[in-house]
Amino acid sequence: MSKRHLSRNTVTAIGDERIRILIGLSEQAVRNGEDDHAIRYVSLAKRIGMKTRTKFPEEFRYCKKCFMPMMPGINCKVRLTDRKVVSACARCGTVKRMPYLREQLK
Description:
This protein is α+β, with helices and mostly antiparallel strands. The chain has helices at 8-31, 35-52, 101-105, and strands at 76-80, 84-89, 95-99. It has a three-stranded antiparallel beta sheet with strand order 1-2-3, with no helix packed on it.
């Protein structure tokens, strides 16, 4: 019995769909207070993304250290400094800095 070969576009589409489902489940788990489930969903989505070479959606943020979905006001602090948006994870304390210079120039 031979293996079924899928085209690259099909694999990417399936991976993207499954990543979006797992991201939705992880955000729902954070809202319900189930941190272990949320971390597991993000790690599974990350593995699927690596296997299918699919990127995460731009709007989804997660802690690179503990894989917790970062949701402002629930489990992370967001502060504005000179030219950066600083997000700190409430679980492990990891800080993520993103520039917002383009928005200041407008």
